[in-house]
Design brief:
Strand content: under 5%
Number of strands: 0
Helix content: over 70%
Largest sheet: none
Structural class: mainly alpha
Radius of gyration: 18 Å
């Protein structure tokens, strides 16, 4: 399986995204739109993953199994280290009910469903108190992992069966996502914020 060459500009863009989200959470009045850094991360991930899958499809070296193994190896160690350390601290400083809620959120995050769980609970990310759950930020990782689960299969199937129309098919997917995003942003902002198709 091919690897993409290192591109320093992408790391620079990641740094800007991280800083914007960090500043937004320190005080949203300092950088009111700083939360858009999450969207920058989604765009970078989409670009890198699509480039990787496409280059491997071209060389006939794409394997879904190898792709998922690499994603798990890259994400799981840091995910569980941070998650378990956070739960250990929460057990000392939270009340029993809050620890239970944190545990439920950790389970949802481990299943890559925290965004759905927060949506079902009626949680508004921008109205949530900073200390309400130490795992709230895992919603974006859930979105990304759902993307990893669905998009490679979709792309591989399109490449295999309608390769000549791949750019058109991808453009239609992007347009559909944009339309759904605009519609839900006007009608149900929380859905637009948390769901994969609008991201």
């Amino acid at each position: 399986m091919k690897h993409l060459s290192y591109r320093p500009a992408i790391d620079g863009l990641r740094a800007v995204a991280v800083l914007s989200v960090f500043v937004f959470h320190l005080n949203h009045r300092w950088l009111n739109g700083g939360f858009v850094g999450v969207d920058v991360f989604f765009v970078i991930s989409g670009y890198l993953i699509t480039s990787l899958i496409y280059s491997n499809c071209i060389s006939s070296g794409f394997s879904l199994t190898a792709f998922y193994q690499r994603r798990i190896a890259r994400i799981a160690p840091a995910f569980f280290l941070v998650a378990l350390c956070t739960m250990g601290v929460a057990a000392f400083i939270y009340q029993a009910q809050d620890v239970q809620q944190a545990g439920a959120n950790l389970l949802s995050a481990g299943l890559s469903l925290l965004n759905i769980s927060l949506l079902k609970s009626g949680s508004n990310y921008f109205a949530t108190l900073p200390d309400a759950s130490p795992y709230t930020h895992y919603w974006s990782l859930s979105v990304e992992e759902q993307y990893y689960l669905i998009f490679p299969v979709l792309f591989w199937l399109l490449f295999r069966f309608v390769r000549r129309h791949l750019p058109t098919a991808m453009a239609l997917v992007c347009i559909a996502s944009f339309i759904v995003c605009v519609y839900l942003t006007m009608k149900h902002q929380t859905y637009a914020f948390y769901l994969l198709p609008t991201r």
